[in-house]
Amino acid sequence: MTTQHDHKALDGMNSNIRRLRELRALSQRDLATQAKLSVTTVNRIEIGKRKPMPSTVRKLAAALGVTPEELLSRQPKLME
User: Fold this and answer.
1) Could you tell me the residue ranges of all domains in the chain?
2) pLDDT higher than threshold 90 for residue 13
3) Would you identify the CATH topology of the domain 4-71?
4) pTM surpassing 0.70?
């Protein structure tokens, strides 16, 4: 069962992914390629239409240069 807390964490992660991707001047295609995911997957996660599996969170975090915990954080470190 998904809780309200889970939804808030996912909403934060969705915006973190987009913010970090844009900060690094990456397109969704670039991020998908680096994370070895489909563009559709990245897009659906960013817009909140898909809840990522833990392995997907790890791939996205690695591609964005942050830890999974930072990606899920309300205020991630914007490492450059």
Assistant:
1) 4-71
2) no
3) 434 Repressor (Amino-terminal Domain) (1.10.260)
4) yes
